[in-house]
């Protein structure tokens, strides 16, 4: 046996947990192998992965325009062929040419500037300006391999020891708890209020900040995920203003996770970036530090595997910016396909462009289908005994609360597992549906939840609803107190 033992490795790695790909998913993979080897070996014929926000793995098709541009950039010799004009849309050809002209040597196989290709950052800044109606500076953009490395980079910058605290919502997307653990900081929780649709109360922020200070924690930043993961709420503008004021007064960096900015499904809510809100309040660079995270993985495009994203970093002193640049440069640069996609996401075809019709039809079909799926699943969950599910206003998830009977909680204890994990495991074994226990995201002690994505293709939703309903009825019949 090799000599390295668990007690010799970094304890921060041992402490770090990431439930979205945790034990329930490992079990699902085993069941899938069983099904392949022995069809009919389980009471279902396929595994339905509702555990991860990975739309294309469940059949969502990529946006044609985006892939045309990517293909042309990656194999520019196609641009010289006479038949290309018949095969690709005119604006995709034009955009690919423009992008290639912005890349030194027209080489997508070369390293770029550590913040990303300047021309692409110009496009992204223009896209942010068009979205927010406030100026954006291409030098504030750091292109990254998805939002995850950007979050890690900021944690690396902000956390020196366990005395450094980062305020995070509970429930939260476990990238935050995991990266705080990996960097050895302290997660300072603030609880979202389930009873008010996962409301974010400033009084709760104040209370938790004071508590952390009293333990000697230096709180450096506040994470806000808007639209929320796993909770699906979209913040009201007034609430965002209060959050901006809170960060400004307390001198906290506002880490604004805005990766679901395109995923809003309700007419009475709109996405507003925190930078726009703060600028509209008259605050400038000197008043507040904001980092906005964006990704190509989410929205209507769902290009998770391409690993593209950026952070827009505003309100930092030049000497801190240099340090961020240094950290970015240690990674050399993010991948070029992801960089190109980030520029396309922030600057898609416009009215009058050749691709506009197909682009907007594809986008609208995906977003309106997601909204219908969310509503159908939410209604189904709310019809179950002891289940209460807030509305999915945005993002890609439902996070229902399950009131588990004492008998089920005792059975979970006997099985040495958390009650919500117990429920999720039985659900998987009975139906093939993979969801993530609420404990992976954090929840008020004594309450139990699970997270289910709204991503399975629409024609699969009725089967999911009926399997889930049958399972839940059976579960309650077995465990009702
Ligand atoms: N921020 C939030 C709120 C996310 O939900 C995710 C991914 C990320 C950042 C990071 O994504 P990228 O690195 O791909 O840009 N969401 C995970 C989830 O909950 N399910 O799938 C992945």
Keywords for this structure?
481 residues; alpha/beta; Aspartate Aminotransferase, domain 1; Helix Hairpins; Aspartate Aminotransferase, domain 2; 3 domains; seven-stranded mixed β-sheet; 14 strands; 43% helix; 12% strand; binds ligand DCS
Structure report:
With 481 residues, the protein is an alpha/beta fold. It folds into three domains: 6-59 and 367-479, Aspartate Aminotransferase, domain 1, CATH 3.90.1150; 70-107, Helix Hairpins, CATH 1.10.287; 111-346, 3-Layer(aba) Sandwich (Aspartate Aminotransferase, domain 2). Helix content is 43%, strand content 12%. The chain contains 17 helices and 14 strands. The chain is globular, with a radius of gyration of 23 Å. The termini are far apart. The mean pLDDT is 95. Residues 20, 52-54, 146-148, 173, 175, 225, 229, 257, 259, 295, 297, 304, 309 line the site of ligand DCS.
Specify the structural class: alpha/beta
Assess the beta-strand content as a share of residues: 5-15%
Mean pLDDT: 95
CATH architecture of the largest domain: 3-Layer(aba) Sandwich
The CATH topology of the largest domain: Aspartate Aminotransferase, domain 2
Spatial order of strands in the largest sheet: 2-8-7-6-5-3-4
Q: Please, how many helices?
A: 17
CATH domain class name of the largest domain: Alpha Beta
Estimated radius of gyration: 23 Å
Low-confidence stretches: none
The description of the largest β-sheet is:
7 strands, mixed
Helix content: 40-55%
Hetero groups in this structure are: ligand DCS
Global geometry: globular
How many angstroms does the end-to-end distance come to? 50 Å
Tell me the name of the CATH homologous superfamily of the largest domain. Answer: Type I PLP-dependent aspartate aminotransferase-like (Major domain)
Count of the domains? 3
What is the number of strand segments? 14
